[in-house]
Amino acid sequence: xxxxxxxxxxxxxxxxxxxxxxxxxxxxxxxxxxxxxxxxxxxxxxxxxxxxxxxxxxxxxxxxxxxxxxxxxxxxxxxxxxxxxxxxxxxxxxxxxxxxxxxxxxxxxxxxxxxxxxxxxxxxxxxxxxxxxxxxxxxxxxxxxxxxxxxxxxxxxxxxxxxxxxxxxxxxxxxxxxxxxxxxxxxxxxxxxxxxxxxxxxxxxxxxxxxxxxxxxxxxxxxxxxxxxxxxxxxxxxxxxxxxxxxxxxxxxxxxxxxxxxxxxxxxxxxxxxxxxxxxxxxxxxx
Length: 287
Prior knowledge:
Shape: elongated
Helix content: 25-40%
Structural class: alpha+beta
Strand content: 15-25%
Mean pLDDT: 93
Order of helices and strands: HEEEEEEEEHHHHHHEEH
Strand order of the largest sheet: 1-6-7-5
Low-confidence stretches: 280-287
Oligomer: single chain
Radius of gyration: 20 Å
């Protein structure tokens, strides 16, 4: 799933390629992709793109004098820039293509979604905050006013485990499964540690890991073409998706805990006092 760094890079890429150009056609190909119907998706056609912004893991394309096109790529969605766009009309139900946006220049982009779980979402709204997922977002962890005190205030009454708290978009916007693993590894903390139990020193360590991990990932992704962002994300991860490989810090074997629809990766030596967490249902909270 694209998270804050990849969506930030996509926003930068689209700012360069979309702003000042006119949208001439928005063509939904998959029935499931459009989540709003009023205003219709055609309401952005004929309008110049004024800005592209990131809201957590959402992309917002603002048009001059028209509504916003808001995109959430979900787990298996992606954006593919086309110069030029293919000719002809795409056929619904054929392949992963979900929506196509065409510019007056002949360029544009396709939104695709792999797999059978269709969660890619496109909204048309007068204001991005009208989109429920955007409206419920917590603070952005890279915002100038997101300081250590802000993080401490968010976590002080949080009775969930750190892994779940970091992934909650209403608590902190933009962090998902992959970067929560990376942040906790950098902070040397168990994913099962209770968020409210952090000492001031631990909060400072988590804050530093959060900001540094995300900032470095954004810098690695900045300036890359949309098609290269997935590979860059994977190459920059130290523990997530690397089960069985040596930890780059201590050399211990990276372990995994599986859930019904996801998994987490961690280093026992760096994060859990050397104790493997064989199964979430059997593991005790490690402090």
